[in-house]
Design goal:
2 domains; alpha/beta; Rossmann fold
Length: about 325
């Protein structure tokens, strides 16, 4: 994939929290660490990361975690943002920490911030990578992230092994990539507790954006809405007039920030692994021999020699 010159190097941007939650809900609750805490999410996430590294062999990668669970800048704008979600239990919070540490031990760049979500970190890292001639490979099924896709980028739903580029977004969501934030502002996003404009569903939002191109153009030309061949067009126009400010607020919530401060601002190249940390995690999380070997292989490290059993005391 190139723009006529040399191929652009791929920057893999992983929506880590999605895969941690998926493992938490799908892995059996039979894994525990040395202290008795559950580790099913860590085991599932480790399998995902290992498969990704083995399949894609990324040279540039950033694994992005959500730390802004209730401190995101969006909560200040709209206190009800994601208020429909229960707080993560301590058993899961501990495992998020282990998952981050595991990525660090493997030499992967980890991004997290108290005021910005993983989506914002992915968008900001992508903007940074583009400036250095990289193309993005967003590893996530989240429809919100499709708004970030540019000419050379792609999104990869890893679990379903489906990939799409910007020109494939309309076939999946009914709107173009650059319209996704406007679309969600209009029809709402139940996952994030964003209500949208009353009476405007997904289909109507797609029709409006197809005709006007953007939310801004739609609000500037509301007087044209009653003449559209849309059921209840006059009522839709009235609702847009009455909820103009809410629609603009929701668009601020659904737009991914691409200027979040990044703790890593180089080219996100894989770094040196931390052998001591990896061994410590393998022991603490009670990984089996096969997982230990795969982790050491992925890190390019030799397997440590087993510790010999202590000799029996001589009377």
């Amino acid at each position: 994939m190139s723009d006529g010159g040399a191929p652009r190097p791929a920057l893999y941007l992983v929506d880590a929290s999605m895969y941690v939650f998926r493992a938490w809900h799908s892995m059996p609750d039979e894994f525990h660490d040395a202290e008795g805490w559950p580790t099913n999410a860590v085991h599932g996430f480790a399998r995902f990361v290992l498969e990704l590294l083995e399949r894609a062999r990324p040279q540039h990668i950033a694994v992005c975690f959500d730390e802004a669970l209730d401190s995101c800048f969006r909560n200040a704008l709209y206190p009800a943002y994601k208020a429909n979600r229960d707080p993560a239990p301590e058993e899961l919070r501990r495992q998020f920490g282990h998952c981050k540490a595991l990525c660090v031990a493997l030499g992967l760049v980890v991004l997290a911030h108290g005021e910005y979500e993983a989506d914002d970190l992915i968008g900001s890292a992508l903007a940074h990578g583009r400036a250095q001639g990289q193309r993005g490979v967003i590893v996530s099924a989240d429809k919100d992230l499709s708004q970030l896709l540019g000419e050379f980028d792609e999104q990869w739903d890893y679990a379903r092994n489906q990939r799409w580029r910007a020109d494939g977004v309309k076939g999946r969501h009914g709107v173009d990539a650059h319209q996704v934030a406007d679309y969600l502002a209009l029809c709402g996003d139940a996952v994030d507790n964003i209500p949208g404009v009353p009476g405007i569903g997904a289909r109507t939002a797609a029709v409006l954006l197809s005709h006007f191109g953007s939310l801004d153009a739609l609000l500037e030309r509301i007087e044209e809405v009653p003449y559209l061949r849309v059921r209840g067009a006059a009522s839709i126009a009235a609702k847009l007039r009455g909820h103009r400010e809410q629609a603009l607020l929701y668009r601020r919530l659904t737009t991914i920030a691409c200027d979040a401060p990044l703790s890593h601002d180089a080219d996100f190249a894989r770094g040196a692994p931390d052998a001591a940390l990896l061994l410590s995690l393998c022991d603490a999380l009670r990984f089996g021999p096969m997982t230990r070997r795969r982790l050491h292989d992925a890190a390019g490290l030799p397997m440590p020699a087993p510790v010999p059993a202590a000799a029996p005391a001589i009377a």
